[in-house]
Design brief:
single chain; about 500 residues; alpha+beta; five-stranded antiparallel β-sheet; 12 helices; 14 strands; binds adenosine-5'-diphosphate
Length: about 500
Amino acid sequence: MGSIRSRLTAAYTAALIATMLFFALTLLTVRRVTVFRELETRVAEEVDRTVRLIDIASKLFTQQLVVTPDSLVGAEVSPRVVPLLELIPDFVLLKDTRGYSLYRSEQVRLLSDSEREMLDSIVLAMPSSPTPTIVSLPSGDLLMQSRRLPGIGTRGQIDRVWVGIRTDAAQLAPSELVNTMLIVAPFLVALSVVFAYFIAGRAFRPIDRIIDQVEAITDGRSLHRRLAIGAAGDELARLSSTLNAMIERLETSFGALRRFTADASHELKTPLTVMRADVERAMSPTSTGTEQAVALEEALQQLTRMADLVDSLLTLARADEGRFDLHREPVELAPLAREVVETARLLGEDAGLIIDAPMIEEADVSGDLTRLRQLFLNLVTNAIKYTPRGGRVEITVVRSDKQVSVTVKDTGIGIAAADLPYIFERFWRADRVRSRASERGGFGLGLAICQWIAQAHGGTLSVQSRLGRGSTFTVTLPVAGTSDLTETDEFIVPQGVAVLD
Ligand code: ADP
């Protein structure tokens, strides 16, 4: 009973049986009540008819209705009245004031002696029953009703009339119903099970198809394929399009992961190859002491480069995990910006650039000083790196009501409009400058880390750039006390930084 189809069929069958049982019981109860009511009406009518007969007889025959032919037998209804009373087909008893039977109908006479006595004693113990009452005899139940005969009793000493009807008739109809149901129900249930199984099968066929398609796609190599979406806009069509959207995201994530792994391996391979050559050169028996020193120094440079790369990868990996050990504290941005400007001036001097800070406004933010410094230094070093000699780099800090904007503007090579959407992606570097960037140690991870730091502080990092005209990177951070984050909040890595999305 594993499949949903079997479970549905079983549930449907159980529900059907329960419904049928409930229906049958209701029908039986209603039927029984109706038949019983009919019997009650009939017994009341028979009582009326008997009373009327006695009344007619008392008027027809002026003589006594009750005679005593034999002192041993006692009083009984006159033989002239008996044929009239015999017209009533049911159990009829006429009693005198002392409870003796003056007349017993044929039905009563046909009872066994013991049953007759039992009926007499029950009737005696129950002097009157104006409404129908059940009287139980071994041969079956009787529905009995009695009536007193006012005014007649004096003439004929008939004090009370009892009429009874067997209730078997009331029970007979329901039992027929039960038998019919017992025969028909198994057929009905069997037929319904077959139907339910068939319908459930049909209903699940599209799901089976979806499962087959998903199985074919999720082998890892077929993520480019999509599920066929049914024509009707039903739940299954929605399921298919939801799954398609999920597969599309998976495809993007897998692609990004593959690119990331390939890029990371490539970035690590280059310094490793150089290092290997350097070490081999240093170990060569023919190399002089100076050559050895040069080779080892180059190997050390490559080692430092690799350590930087691993450090950046580690930062992003931790960011991807969703948490990072950022130490939040109140940070004054103006002194931090001035410190960054100083460093930029030192670097810019070598590169032949003018570094300017026309406006540095006071603003406090709540954040990690080290990470914020890393963010601004990354942007400033990029600006210096991608601005040719004689250019200009401008750093400003402008505070507005609730936020502060730190802008790093350069007059450098700029970024092509087509490249702008990709610059925050990991390992992305504009191809034209790829070789140059590599020389200067860029891996294409700096902006991804910058964006993560900005977003982890509840801020944003945006860029405006024109090829050949320069770029402007703007970091917007919430001013301390206006951010939704509190001192104890974890820094959640925002969407868009993670590789897998
Ligand atoms: P990298 O370490 O290579 O500089 P980044 O992530 O910091 O990596 O930058 C990614 C790429 O974005 C760079 O390779 C460069 O092509 C481009 N870029 C970044 N900053 C600037 C800038 N100020 N001017 C022009 N291009 C830039």
